[in-house]
Amino acid sequence: MLAQNLQIEQTGALVVASLDVRRLSGAEADVLIEDLASRMRCDGATHFLLDMRKVEYVDSSCIGSLVTFLQDLEHVRGRLALANCQPNVAFLFKVTRLDTVFTLYDDLDQARTQILHG
């Protein structure tokens, strides 16, 4: 259950979601995206950062959910970035060329600064 393994921190327009799961499926991603979309609609969040430190696997439907959310963010000129991706997750984004769609950061602090000011 993702809700138990998810920590979300919002500071102004920035939301940082830290995932404490090894596998991120489409169903779990849908729960995450619904929470993030609610924050976008109701709380003025426009910049989202996913801390993927513990995620070792994402499935294709998860990626689809992230892409759909990214398209929704275009309406508010928002951003979505990923930080601390495990090597196999980063490789998946690179091999599918989604690293050109999503910004991947090695460091969470750098990602916070860059997503707001970059």
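That was protein one. Protein two is written in the same sequence-then-structure order:
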Amino acid sequence: MEEMHRTFAALSDPTRCAILEMLADGEKTVMDIAVPFAMSQPAISRHLKVLEDAALITRRIDGAKRPCALSPAGLEQLEQWATKLRKSMARNYDRLDAVLAAMPPVEKDTP
């Protein structure tokens, strides 16, 4: 569960969410990522470190460049967690439907 806490902490920042959206279009270098933001490259690198620690992105070395990409494994873990919650909610609603179906109909007073 600690991994999920890191994931949600990483997603709680709008800049990091915007970075993930950029990476959805494909791999980008740190300098490419920094362009639309009004912050320094070291600040962007700190955001990338948080995303990497949360397993939401991967970075590789390509000469002097460090391209970043979305991490399928990290996103899969997030999706599995959301699916588990969605299934739990569906079971709760199914039980509620069964209880409501078993209740006798309420008679309305007619004017």
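The chain has a mean pLDDT of 91. Keep this in mind for the problem set.
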